[in-house]
Amino acid sequence: MAMKEMTEVQEEARRCVKCGNCLAQCPVYAETLEEPLAARGKMALVESIKEEDPEYSKRYYKILSQCLLCGTCAENCPNGVCGDEIIREARALLVREKGLTLPKKAIFKYFLDTDRLMPLVLKAGASLQHLFLEKIPEESGLRLRFPLPFVDSKRFIPGLAPDPFLGFRSGWFRAEKETMRVGLFVGCVSNYMFPRVAAAALDLFLGNGISVYIPGEQKCCGLPAFGSGDDETPRSIARKNIEAFAGENLDRIVAHCASCAAMLKLDYPVLFGPEDPFRARALAFSEKVSDFTSLFAGVWKPEPGKAAPGTRPVRVTYHDP
Ligand code: SF4
Ligand code: SF4
What we know:
By secondary structure, this protein is of the alpha/beta class. It has helices at about 5-15, 25-30, 40-50, 60-65, 70-75, 85-100, 100-110, 115-135, 165-170, 190-195, 195-205, 225, 230-245, 260-270, 280-290, 290-300, and strands at about 170-175, 180-185, 210-215, 250-255, 290.
């Protein structure tokens, strides 16, 4: 990865002219109304911070960590300041300098990037969660007495599915009258919490003449580690995911989680610098990646004013990371 130095990141942050155009769109600012947490405040902080500053690690990291990396500030910046990228780079610099916290290190290196531990632990968790949580009413205070480690007790986490999607669906699924071949990137949330979403995607593909290859050895996309400023773990994960889809003749690689799609398409090439021999493979892989919705918008091509076959009059929200 072409790692940026502090001076380069600060130079980019200095392009912010503090106009405040990004303020109204920042979801973190909307929630907290705290100026330092919007892109303008963070750019001011990044450009002025000094590594020898005693506040460098603690308060600085706390402020930087309160960003969803949604990129809305960058989209609304008239000066072309990529707030989300600068914030992630600043986190990465901090991690390079000070290292990851112990819980993050344990989760990223020994959980996300392993072949067996994550499936085993989550499978065990799916069996045991019934013992603890299912019989306790949602509103009961007892739930707060069994907090999950490292998770805010007020945060709602959906239950784990009894069987992960990849545990019972992997390999090739052939469509009749095949028009296209895609690889399906399932993602952790679909795999462990909502397998029915991945199953619905598979059905839609097959019903529309699209054959699907699902490599059973695919992993987390690596976004949780990448967003936290860890560059090593996502690089290792990216190599494994790219290998998992290699060797099959695929027209597209599709992710139905928009965050996973953005990670595979936009961030995998960033992980491998110009000198890295793996960069060409990462670029070729990311060129094939499509978000599920954008792929289907092209496949169905409904006539203007007419709904696509099978659509129902419902309101939906669309996650556009
Ligand atoms: S990040 Fe862009 S939009 Fe936000 S204050 Fe700076 S220049 Fe203005
Ligand atoms: S990336 Fe999103 S959450 Fe972060 S500062 Fe920009 S708008 Fe706010």
